[in-house]
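ligand=zinc ion
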Amino acid sequence: MIGAAAVAFLKDTLKGEAVIHKATRVKDLKGLYRDEEARAALDPDTVLYDVDAHLPVAEGTEGGLFFGITRIHPGKIGAEYIFTKGHFHAKSDRGEYYWGIEGEGMLLLMGRDRACRAEVMKPGSLHYIPAHTAHRVANTGSTVLSFGAAWPSDAGHDYEEIFKNGFSGRLVEEAGKPQLIPENQ
Ligand code: PAN
Ligand code: ZN
């Protein structure tokens, strides 16, 4: 039997069967920005980034894969570029691929030893996120940053660790350029 694909992947959107859409708003990022006052002053319902994800199997299924596209709005909260919450995987030994689609950004990678590094994201850049490595993306450009992701369906997300201890590096604008500033290393 020959059939049409159940999902359409058009540049930075996904549409079709088993595709979910999730928006993350100002109110979901409480305590994560260096300048909490600046965050709290914003409309809590403003969307900062959103994700389309193709989840063809149930979350937690061993041996499956998930595929997502994230779009992050441009801008800063205080001096810090708008970013994703960031997480370790709940099954910490699961890795992931990210790749840049449109716009400019930085991927922050932090190991369990809290050593932190950043990789430049741009259209066509490919990023291997090793196991046991927290990952967060910041939009350092002036347009929407979109990127793709593929990860194991049993990886899960541990956001708690990041809400508790944060990342050991922050991407802030200094003299008009992104700088990686160490924090709580
Ligand atoms: C991605 C992320 C997505 C949003 O699909 O979930 O970019 O970032 P947060 O989940 O940190 O809010 C991924 O890493 N999945 O594992
Ligand atoms: Zn992940």
